[in-house]
Amino acid sequence: MVLGKSLRNHKTTRKLVVMIGPHVSDPCKGVLLKIFDEVLLVDVLDSGDSANLALMKRPDLGVTFTKLHCWTLTHYSKCVFMDADTLVVQNIDELFDREELSAAPDPGWPDCFNSGVFVFRPSNETYSKLLQYCAEHGSFDGGDQGVLNGFFGNWATADISKHLPFIYNLSSIAIYTYLPAFKQYGGNAKVVHFLGQTKPWSYTYDPKTKRVSGDMQETSTHTSFLQDWWFLYSSSVVPMMVEGYGDQPFHSGCVEVHLEFQSPVKENCDHHGHWPGSWSQINSHKEGGWKGSSSSHDSHHTEPYMSPETSEERKQKWEQGQADYMGMDSFDNIQKKLDAFLK
Amino acid sequence: MVLGKSLRNHKTTRKLVVMIGPHVSDPCKGVLLKIFDEVLLVDVLDSGDSANLALMKRPDLGVTFTKLHCWTLTHYSKCVFMDADTLVVQNIDELFDREELSAAPDPGWPDCFNSGVFVFRPSNETYSKLLQYCAEHGSFDGGDQGVLNGFFGNWATADISKHLPFIYNLSSIAIYTYLPAFKQYGGNAKVVHFLGQTKPWSYTYDPKTKRVSGDMQETSTHTSFLQDWWFLYSSSVVPMMVEGYGDQPFHSGCVEVHLEFQSPVKENCDHHGHWPGSWSQINSHKEGGWKGSSSSHDSHHTEPYMSPETSEERKQKWEQGQADYMGMDSFDNIQKKLDAFLK
């Protein structure tokens, strides 16, 4: 939602499409429809095609498969995929001048591209080849970034025009790794990517003081981007959520938001308008264009989608705003635990 | 010395040149002359040319200036510069097929190249322009990497052939940042660059067990490269040092090395054959070729060369194997402090 709003605010001329999983609540879908031109429901593990059945033998590639699905959006001629943990800070329509597969280098291993932002051409043929590649080679990092870097293996050496400048996918991790470079070049940032375990929605925000709180260790050097994210979320997205949820309670992540918006704060539903355990995509189109995003994506540590989780993994997901609100982490279950604890 | 030996072991056909500062001891120079084809003494802050005088107003660029000096080696037509904290693990003569300025991306800000390994063409004209650039723009990171990335500012966007594959400058930091990529591509490593505060010579080594000891936190994932470094150092460099130092004591960094080489271990002289507080270069040439290296270089945290040091800074330098063995950290001074402490 924040990414979509940031694209709108910077006056994109392209269509915006978001792809969501089955767990997204109806009020959230309503808000998404206000921001995006198209909301596509993706059933992550049951696409029903034979290629996918082959992949079903590799449940660890579930998330990966879902992201690759973007190549089937053949009613667009060219698209830009964007992860849900990205934020647009300048108009980026010029990305549609680039060819498949254009992407920015990953700061971890810079001969790989980061798959959080990339330009591609939807094509059923490419999609089939990608699935075949998945089945034959898997993913070297267990996620989509490994698959895509394997498939588009000549990115590092073939064509400089397919290297997007780093300012189109400015990983927050790079800011504190090489601060002087960020100070030199960061002012031209166009897209910020909140890589790492701590996402913007892991923090708490006070709309009155416009201050973000939480463990700021990782982000001490890029608080201004984090504040941009929260300002946009609290000022533009939360009011739509309040309207969408009506009498239903939801947790906004803002302190005292119940005073501001007359809505009680409870932990029983979709968190910040993100998509727990599933993912989403955003699409931009004019002559043909597309943007996508994934809230559960972390380029270096993608979790298998349906794997059995340990308590620690669940805690981590909860802290990343990916709690299983409909299952293990439902309001009823939490209420029971609290009651047991208070007895 | 280790870098030079690693180039020899991998049968480079090019000339090797090392550039050293004024603090390198005579026994060390003797060892260097056995490994390198040419040993060049560089007086870091008094080159005597007018361009340098202009730079003297910027003492913070001392180290930077020294590295740029490599462009004056016009008796070679093409060269490869290498930092002293690099280790060659495969023959890399093919780098001489590349043009100026070829370098590998920096994992911190991958639109910058890392200046630890780069291909260049010596030229007095380029040298003058570089000095002029220094005087006008300075360095955005206070070191040579900032200057060179400013001067060769179109590296990221102009010519893919000037992007050396990351395996030619595999920063140790990248290994643990994106371990799956290292596992996928690291097996082809040609040059390892021990970036970061902890250098190979910060550790201790037991030649009998072939084990490296010390704070392994940073290096837990690349101990094999660290062991390669130490095996080469202890088996090839230390014996030459023992011979070169004769009756003079020196500290090898190996435990019980005095039993193996009949040489007492004391902390009063040049450490591991590296060049305290100064730097060095290594040169490789056939039709014309050159390699250089700097022991005090850290691409992200280069210290001003002649700045007055705090106690903390001295401690850091000591821990990095850059103690001021002839001055503040001389054996006599340490003995005095120990005596005072033991009273």
From TrEMBL, chains A, B:
Transmembrane segments annotated in the record for this chain: none
Pfam families with a match to the protein in the record: Glyco_transf_8
GO CC aspect terms: cytoplasm
UniProt-annotated location(s): Cytoplasm
Pathway, per record: Glycan biosynthesis; glycogen biosynthesis
GO biological process: glycogen biosynthetic process
SUPFAM superfamilies tied to this protein: Nucleotide-diphospho-sugar transferases
EC number per UniProt: 2.4.1.186
GO molecular function: glycogenin glucosyltransferase activity; metal ion binding
UniProt region (Disordered), positions on chain: 284-326
Record bears the keyword Transmembrane: no
Gene3D superfamilies: Spore Coat Polysaccharide Biosynthesis Protein SpsA, Chain A (3.90.550.10)
Reactions this protein catalyses: L-tyrosyl-[glycogenin] + UDP-alpha-D-glucose = alpha-D-glucosyl-L-tyrosyl-[glycogenin] + UDP + H(+); [1,4-alpha-D-glucosyl](n)-L-tyrosyl-[glycogenin] + UDP-alpha-D-glucose = [1,4-alpha-D-glucosyl](n+1)-L-tyrosyl-[glycogenin] + UDP + H(+)
Major subcellular location class: cytoplasm
Domain of life from the UniProt record: Eukaryota
Cofactor: Mn(2+)
Chain segments annotated as coiled-coil in the UniProt record: none
InterPro entries cross-referenced by the UniProt entry: Glyco_trans_8, GNT1/Glycosyltrans_8, Nucleotide-diphossugar_trans
Function, in words: Glycogenin participates in the glycogen biosynthetic process along with glycogen synthase and glycogen branching enzyme. It catalyzes the formation of a short alpha (1,4)-glucosyl chain covalently attached via a glucose 1-O-tyrosyl linkage to internal tyrosine residues and these chains act as primers for the elongation reaction catalyzed by glycogen synthase.
Cited PANTHER family: GLYCOGENIN SUBFAMILY MEMBER
Family: Belongs to the glycosyltransferase 8 family. Glycogenin subfamily.
Protein name according to UniProt: glycogenin glucosyltransferase
Organism from which the protein derives: Oncorhynchus mykiss (Rainbow trout)
